[in-house]
Amino acid sequence: MTRPLIFLDPFPRTEAMVWDDATRAAVEEMGEVTAHFGSRAPDALVERILPEVSVIVGQTALPKERLDRAPNLRAVLNVKANWEPDLDYAEAHARGIWVLSAAPAMAPAVAEFALGQALSLLRGIHTADTRFRSGDMGIGIGGNAAARPLFGAEIGLLGYGNLGRALLPLLSPFGGRLRIHDPWLSDGYLRSQGAEPTDLGTLLAQSDVLFLLAGVTTENAGGLTRARLETIRPDAAVILASRAEIVEFDAFLSLAAEGRFRAAVDVFPEEPVPPDHPWRQIPNVLFSHHLAGGMEASYALIREMMLDDIAQVLKGLPPLRMQRAEPRLAGLMRSR
Amino acid sequence: MTRPLIFLDPFPRTEAMVWDDATRAAVEEMGEVTAHFGSRAPDALVERILPEVSVIVGQTALPKERLDRAPNLRAVLNVKANWEPDLDYAEAHARGIWVLSAAPAMAPAVAEFALGQALSLLRGIHTADTRFRSGDMGIGIGGNAAARPLFGAEIGLLGYGNLGRALLPLLSPFGGRLRIHDPWLSDGYLRSQGAEPTDLGTLLAQSDVLFLLAGVTTENAGGLTRARLETIRPDAAVILASRAEIVEFDAFLSLAAEGRFRAAVDVFPEEPVPPDHPWRQIPNVLFSHHLAGGMEASYALIREMMLDDIAQVLKGLPPLRMQRAEPRLAGLMRSR
Amino acid sequence: MTRPLIFLDPFPRTEAMVWDDATRAAVEEMGEVTAHFGSRAPDALVERILPEVSVIVGQTALPKERLDRAPNLRAVLNVKANWEPDLDYAEAHARGIWVLSAAPAMAPAVAEFALGQALSLLRGIHTADTRFRSGDMGIGIGGNAAARPLFGAEIGLLGYGNLGRALLPLLSPFGGRLRIHDPWLSDGYLRSQGAEPTDLGTLLAQSDVLFLLAGVTTENAGGLTRARLETIRPDAAVILASRAEIVEFDAFLSLAAEGRFRAAVDVFPEEPVPPDHPWRQIPNVLFSHHLAGGMEASYALIREMMLDDIAQVLKGLPPLRMQRAEPRLAGLMRSR
Amino acid sequence: MTRPLIFLDPFPRTEAMVWDDATRAAVEEMGEVTAHFGSRAPDALVERILPEVSVIVGQTALPKERLDRAPNLRAVLNVKANWEPDLDYAEAHARGIWVLSAAPAMAPAVAEFALGQALSLLRGIHTADTRFRSGDMGIGIGGNAAARPLFGAEIGLLGYGNLGRALLPLLSPFGGRLRIHDPWLSDGYLRSQGAEPTDLGTLLAQSDVLFLLAGVTTENAGGLTRARLETIRPDAAVILASRAEIVEFDAFLSLAAEGRFRAAVDVFPEEPVPPDHPWRQIPNVLFSHHLAGGMEASYALIREMMLDDIAQVLKGLPPLRMQRAEPRLAGLMRSR
């Protein structure tokens, strides 16, 4: 029996991110490996592997004409957290090819980061240090005029996908009311997850802490307009964690700057943000430069999930750890 | 039947902290109230209430000779989080007088603050903002060289009292190994709480995240000497949350400044810290000025617990929410 | 815009089970309804609805030639808990038609029943009543020679599908070691669920309480042979909850009758069991007549899940509550 | 330094229950041991040990005159689950002597038994076996007319002491509304435990599953009169788990016999119940003969808790595992 061919084309993921010695050894035990790092694999290489390949790890472009030439292909493991636009999802689905994304591997890191941002906004952890170093004498309750608790706070999640599912168990011990708005999910499903489904208006107006976790779709880009953002509960803590495009970004920053709400921002419409960009000087915002998900622990989890799911797929079993593309939804998601 | 006399002497707690309208109304329904705010109640006033008083709310000095003159006294509710030195604990215990502290009301606020500090130290949340504003171009994994996850981290708690019990459920969802060292608690008890009991040496050497939560006693003051602190796991995140006196403070700051470990410090040997004190300029420490516990939400919880326990005591039932003095231990705790 | 056609053909489910007034009203709001109860829908009726139908609720036979004539079909909601053999899963999948089963709606009922069986076996709850009525004088520890605790017991699950996922949270508070054997699931996945993956031999030999929850496949039918069953830990409590075919049934009963282990049996190779069948007199077994899942509460949950998922599908969104057929696995599952 | 004297007088607990080899070895390492088994220790022996004894394990009568002669006594560990009437609780308290009961060691066993009883009552697990053996042909929903789910049921606890605290985490995963009535506990405390405080009338009328867990006091004996019992929600499952004296016992059985509610009974006003007592033939009740707590696993836990707390007390630290007598309440509890 011939061994299955596994093709790696993970750019822009680097060799270091997805291909440490242990991973390489484990994959090589499962099949023959062809790999290309440092750039998108050249067309000639892709053409050469198509007739044999069983599993593709990476973001290789896979329009229908390529899928037609890959009769053994069982799975495509996108090691980024998105859905690439140049893959024919419907055709892959029709052929029974699993298309998978590594988004779940990023979720724990983003969830703990978002919780830390929320606690910093509510309790002033990041500003306390600056104040202390500047000689501020506010101490105890005298320094806590703006402090509010996470315990018992009303919490809102806009979007309940990988990030929301990772964040929910971290928030549960704080005991507050938990609402979710996600137009792709039924009320019954959200209740079965222990949350209260709600409409967008209520979510914005009633949350003390508001996590913006939705992906961008062709439908919701810019959906949180200035007018919507103005309905956010005054002084709420708002964490923009998923994609900048879901808010009217400059309006969001300007409302935060005015003190309308407290904001933490990890994602931007343009990344990297140029060093002298005016965003960098907006006051009253807790900034980070897309640091929530991309850490070594997340890549270790990508490697673990990838190994698990290659093994499942080669046994003819469904993958379990990475996220499966929903054929109708993948096309709606905007990528970059 | 005469109504019981309830005496309030909460200084340094202010009237606003413990005596809002709802609290006053609820207490006045339970008995006659005599109150003194703004300073320690004068001796003459104390002498006058002793023969009748059933419940004292506050830190009134209560040596044996005063207890001798208070035949109806059932409970003393210290609305601070400590054990006052000028109360005769053994005598109160012998007379069946409950002596209670409001420490449990502070614990949720301190626990969530400490979790936020830990996440900031591990994930660089507070430094990310400074770096972003300064034009730093590190983004994603390129900006996360020092980032480490809380998910899966080995966690150590030094001391497992009110703070530890409030913090444990917040840490559980992160799934890491959890060790506790507390010389006052048996191994069997710690295991029954879902934690792994351990000795101090292992705790310091094996924790990725180390929460210092012990109270100060006549036995452990300064117990974490420089030599001990040097055995902390390199690059661990260390949160000093309870009392500065449990560490050799200057050694602690200097090891943190050298990058030996990451540190968050909320408590100081001298408070308030003078505005120009050199501590305020130590690098590599996340400072706050005793902000972890003293917020409005904590005082609201004090009021709630106080009301609950006054009602219990006046019904002849044991108090449930505030912490009971352990007669042999209260004397060991250092107060201020 | 024309309203979608929803076709009901739920036999052997009755009208009462799936079509109460509230459900009917809700479905009729979502589309035009054609329904047939009391028998499998006649071919002529099926042929008539195929050209228009969007959603089929039931077990209508759907070979490729019928799917070819159903261009608008988006989903088939099997309201039984199995995968029907006369549906072309691969073709349905290729066409992007969701094929769903109501198995998850049965899982809570089965899980709580299985927990109750385990507690009865371990603690002798069902035998206590008989003994008491017969005048037995064993009381307290004098009557508990055979009693063993669930708290701290080593627990094994054979199979981790809908039943296992519903049962796990009920077992967690008992704090014992939890092992799972499921050849379709990777070790990494099982660990991510908080369980310890294990091989079949260890599972049988080391479990104090063993839940048999696997479905029957063409591969595992009769897999628990007498030889295998003899390796079960002596005096273990064994709950046969999913399908009788996964064990060598008469050997299983005979080992239980000999006291080799304690057994609870809810499923049989032949159902209903004839009234005078010798199985009914086997001693030392806690019998029930396929009562674990089929209760009114389960049908209420089927109706709720069905409504939720019809709504999702008609909005072009993925279903969330019912179970999706895995095209490669559905064919392996034996049905009846 | 002389080693402390530890005195064992555990009757009616037997030597086997409290004094296995490991326990004996561990206690002998902590001090000198004098032990008497098989009967209450003779007065002469008690008199002899009083002047030196540090710890008494058992139910030795300890009126004030004996306490006066026991200057070193630090703790009395009652290894039963009650409060003995012939101990002077107030005097022991005044002297700073811990008086402890082993009730918490019984709680896990009772809680899991009560959960099993509830599941049997709701789902008919114990009757299913009898029906099956008798040739009954009811299968699936056809045999489940009386079955009701625990998932989502409204649950009521009468009394929230050791039993309630052990039971609550077992019930939480079922997700139903949870109410508690306990006149000794404040509403705020019950809410802090995640339950809803309620009055007795609401508890009886609104619970689908009702756990009777209260101890008997001089105040509540017979408190659940026939009139009260008639207000129980029709067809509720009622588990009498703590003490028979809290209900009007014959009325309770007779209402259950009439089918007014479903009942499980483990405790009786007279124990052991004579073999031919008419109680033993009451229909529609799930009986057991005081089997809920007294099993080997409970005695193992008593030994573990006892060892832990002897060690704590001999170090001058508060006990942690056994229950402390509340001096005012212990006197209210009826014992036998």
Automatic annotation (TrEMBL), chains A, B, C, D:
Secretion signal, residue range per the UniProt entry: none
GO MF annotation: an example: oxidoreductase activity
Pfam families documented for this protein: 2-Hacid_dh_C
Similarity comment text for this entry: Belongs to the D-isomer specific 2-hydroxyacid dehydrogenase family.
Domain of life: Bacteria
Transmembrane portions of the chain: none
Domain D-isomer specific 2-hydroxyacid dehydrogenase NAD-binding residues, every copy: 116-292
Protein name, UniProt field: Hydroxyacid dehydrogenase
tRNA processing in keyword set: no
SUPFAM superfamilies: Formate/glycerate dehydrogenase catalytic domain-like, NAD(P)-binding Rossmann-fold domains
Keyword match Oxidoreductase: yes
InterPro entries, A to Z: D-2-hydroxyacid_DH, D-isomer_DH_NAD-bd, NAD(P)-bd_dom_sf
Keywords tagged on the record: NAD, Oxidoreductase
